[in-house]
Every structure is written in C-alpha cells, then in structure tokens.
Protein: FeoB-associated Cys-rich membrane protein
Amino acid sequence: MNFQTVIILLVFAAAVFYVGRMIYKSLVTKKGCGTNCKCGVDFSNIEPDQTAR
Structure:
C-alpha cells in the first residue's frame, strides 16, 4: 500500500469516527438535568416581589 493511501484511510477513519461520535451524542439522553431547567439554581436569596429589569 502507498503511504498516501494509508494517510487517506486514516483521515477517512477519523472523519467517520467524528461524525459517528456527533450522532451518538445527539441521540443518547443525558443522565442529569435537561438544558435550561434551572433545577441547580439557588433562588433562596431572591425576594418573590422583585421584578426583572
């Protein structure tokens, strides 16, 4: 096998791995909270009658 063919195969394998990893991360659910659920935010020091500015 040519050296150039080996390099092209390695680049192709890296691209397939990258795309596969992106697809896997988008399909697998997270174990923790969802995004923007604010369950980890501490609201204990905010008064309920304050309005947003």
Residues 1-53 form one domain.
